[in-house]
Write a structure and sequence with these properties.
The protein is α/β, with parallel strands linked by helices and about 120 residues long. About 35% of the residues lie in helices and about 25% in strands. It has 4 helices and 5 strands, in the order βαβαβαβαβ. It is globular, with a radius of gyration of 13 Å.
Length: about 120
């Protein structure tokens, strides 16, 4: 049985996790998302902005765990301004493209925000 934590939102602003070498950052975020899919406790939403949008487009190593999370009911919100900045708006593989207003709305409904 999966428990959805409606009060939690995860913010992803990097193309990976932490501030290590890029290869390690991707390995860490990949492991994090995979373990999150195996967990019984899920966030209400994961918001991707800045370099974080690179995790939801063609070529990303974390598309499959993100698809699994989305199928489990986790809302994946991607910043359109950031996609346009990187010229990636036509490469999105998972989630819903929105704006900063959508991210703010998800944050305002949450009681806990986790920044990766």
């Amino acid at each position: 049985m999966t428990i959805k934590e409606f009060d939690t939102v995860i913010l992803v602003s990097r193309n990976g996790m932490g501030s290590a070498d890029p290869e390690l950052q991707i390995k860490l975020i990949s492991t994090y998302f995979q373990l999150l899919t195996e967990s019984r406790i899920l966030p209400a939403a994961i918001c991707f902005y800045a370099d974080g949008v690179k995790l939801v487009v063609n070529g990303s190593a974390v598309i499959e765990p993100l698809r699994s999370l989305e199928k489990m009911g986790v809302h994946l919100i991607i910043c359109m301004t950031c996609l346009k900045y990187y010229k990636m708006e036509d490469q999105v593989q998972v989630g819903i493209v929105g704006g900063m207003t959508d991210i703010i709305e998800a944050q305002s409904r949450s009681q806990k925000i986790i920044s990766l």
